[in-house]
């Protein structure tokens, strides 16, 4: 799966109903050939809407960085953090800062500009083709591509 394939798949999954965090994570696993269970994908659900619909850090980058953690994170308390985990996560987050610079920040509230506690606003966001949801698609596409490129640069 190429980075462009990942970008396409991530936006399609978001369109079908996955949260941005789930879409980027799922594509990362697919790129790696990992057939993970639905429980792992479900665990990424609360990161939509900027962590529990608070508008904080965009779930797109959280899902993408979770792929790096899946590969290189600790498996047991006594394990040491791998330097590669920190290096790749940092590199990916810096790329995300560039992707989201035009929005003024990396938070969901900067990109989507939705008050997630206002159900009318949420409905409009999801159904109105002129809503800022189109910006989320752009961010998801670019972030999934950046993740794919990073994985390829590291022979993954």
TrEMBL record:
Keyword field: Membrane, Transmembrane, Transmembrane helix
Q: Where are the transmembrane segments?
A: 54-73
What is the organism of origin for this protein? Dissulfuribacter thermophilus
**Family annotation (InterPro entries):** CGCAxxGCC_motif (IPR010181), Multihaem_cyt_sf (IPR036280)
| Name of the protein in question | C_GCAxxG_C_C family protein
Pfam families noted in UniProt: C_GCAxxG_C_C
